[in-house]
Amino acid sequence: MCQKQYADSLLLRRPAIYDFLMEHIRSDYTQVRELHRTDRGSVLLVRHDQTHTPYIFRHFKGSAEVYRKLLFLDCANLPHIYEAAEKEGNAVVLEEYIEGDNMQELLKGVLFSKEETRAIVRDLCQGLWVLHKNGAVHRDIKPENIILRGDTAILIDFDASRIFKKESAADTIVLGTTGFAAPEQYGMGQSDRRSDIYSLGVLMNVMLTGKHPSHQLTPGRFGRIISKCTMMDPAARYDSVVELLEAL
After folding, report:
1. Residue extent(s) of CATH 1.10.510.10 domains in the chain
2. Phi/psi at 142 (nearest 5 deg)?
3. What distance in Å separates the CA atoms of residue 244 and residue 230, rounded to the nearest whole number?
């Protein structure tokens, strides 16, 4: 079977995989706790009854398209996706549970140094390079979606992510977090890799000052990098995470 036929057969099996995964979660896993819940769905920490291995189980309204893109990819700065399926507008995902420190919690007590910020953003750029190379845009980069596991930063939560479509003039669904989301995510255009670069700029400033760059911009060279990341016009930003890495 050629690669395209194999991919098509997987797509046709998605509803069956959705039902199988839902049944598998009910019969072979125990819910440890609910991590997050919104109008779109929930994020649960579950544990396999036999192996006692913890996993993240996502169940939300929307598409699992980006999660499916990550199924066969291995990147130290992204969680491993074990299964992803959808049925009738609902998506389910079973993914690696990342043990570590959530950046949002860390920022409640301390800011990051320039050296720490540079190292973390480099890790995030590595993860985003994998996403962008596969046509995906994260669209929700913020402290809550970053886990620090030792010296490694891991970008999580692709529920708001989408696949870039050249023929589209704007996003079909407005998603993102106020303050971190790029202007085009509010109906001013279609989000693309430069939308994630905007969010990275805001993130860097928050890590260094605790504030949005519109309220207090980091001084010096970092401030100039952040300003370029957060330009209103996407064309005026860094064109790729590779360019941002070079600037850092």
Report:
1. 101-247
2. -165, 165
3. 12
pTM of the model as a whole: 0.86
Q: Which fold has domain 101-247?
A: Transferase(Phosphotransferase); domain 1 (1.10.510)
Please pick, among 8, 74, 123, 140, the residue that the annotation labels catalytic: 140
Rounded to whole angstroms, what are the CA distances from 106 to 102, 118, 203, 205, 211? Answer: 7, 17, 13, 15, 15
As annotated, the residues of the chain forming the CATH 3.30.200.20 domain(s) are 3-96
**140 given a catalytic annotation:** yes
Task: Kindly list the distances between the CA atom of residue 164 and the CA atoms of 93, 145, 203, 217, in Å, as whole numbers in the listed order.
Answer: 21, 21, 22, 30
- Stated as kind and residue range, the H or E segment containing 19 is helix 14-28
Q: pLDDT averaged over consecutive 10-residue blocks of the chain (248 residues)?
A: 42 71 94 92 96 96 90 93 92 96 95 97 97 94 96 94 63 59 78 94 97 95 97 96 96
Residue position matching structure tokens 């953003």: 121
One of 3.10.560.10, 3.40.50.2000, 3.90.650.10, 3.30.200.20 is the CATH number of 3-96, namely 3.30.200.20
Amino acid identity of 166?
K
Distance of CA 70 to the CA centre of its chain: 11
